Backbone:
């Protein structure tokens, strides 16, 4: 069981890293120096789906790590 949770945590961490890197903010480093337009827009379509998938992967990752800690 502990091995299965370890495999789940490794796979979910890799997919979580990819999902975070795929999220595009649009302005890049220019926003750090005041180049951002500063308007609010909603997430739609694939961007929203990727956002929800990232949240689910984070929950799976943390849950698998807690499971590894609790199983003797």
Residues:
């Amino acid at each position: 069981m502990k091995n299965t949770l370890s495999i789940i945590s490794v796979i979910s961490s890799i997919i979580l890293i990819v999902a975070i890197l795929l999220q595009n903010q649009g302005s890049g480093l220019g926003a750090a120096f005041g180049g951002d337009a500063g308007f609010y827009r909603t997430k739609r379509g694939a961007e929203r789906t990727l956002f929800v998938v990232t949240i689910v992967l984070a929950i799976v990752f943390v849950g698998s790590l807690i499971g590894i800690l609790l199983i003797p």
Observations:
- Residues 25 and 41 are 11 Å apart (CA to CA).
- Residues 2-70 form one domain.
- The helical segments are 2-22, 46-70.
